[in-house]
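From the shared-data thread, chain only:
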Amino acid sequence: DTQTNTLYWYDFDNTVVDNVNRMTMGPNNELFFEMGVNGIGGGAYEGNIIKLNFNTDTFTKYHLTNAHCSNPLVFDSSGNLYAEGNAGFVCKIDFSSNTVTTWDLGQTETGGVSFDYFDIDQNNNIFASIQTHQKIAKVDQSSNLVTVWLIPDAQEGPFDIAADSSGNVFFQAGNKFWRLVPATDTFTKWDNFAMQNLDMDGNTLWGFTHNAAWKLT
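Structure, as tokens:
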């Protein structure tokens, strides 16, 4: 607790939790994290997401059978959780109705699709970085339309991604930093500069290089 300089320790023994992985903070002082994905036969999978409520010190395990969801990444303004799934799936988990919506980005390519990063803009459009094909994908939830942009001359990436309040998308690809303006289909790149662990606050972008923290406005 940075307000009181107090460290709290949570012992996962004798709980539903095992093999804790990626984490993200949600609303209402709750922490969400991955507990892995288990095969359950017949080509089906069970995604496991755990919620730790710091107010009540309780754990809740969500079994997402066949929903292909395991890696919680980001929340939207309505409290819906978006998670990375298996084989190119993006998942939206609505806790108010206990429903899961999935989008299969693997259908956008002939080969296998892999991504580890995505973000949500202020209109709840989903932007995903498809590292296997050097592309950025956008999912418009209002129409379920998927738009894909090929990053010009990129040989690897993109890695990390952040969308600002104006709808611009920032990401790293190779040793370069990029901006995509979806409204005009235009890319801008900055050579010999790259940031990781991107985080957007309105139109202010935060990130890290190997020896510094950066703030771009």
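DSSP finds no helices and 19 strands in the chain.
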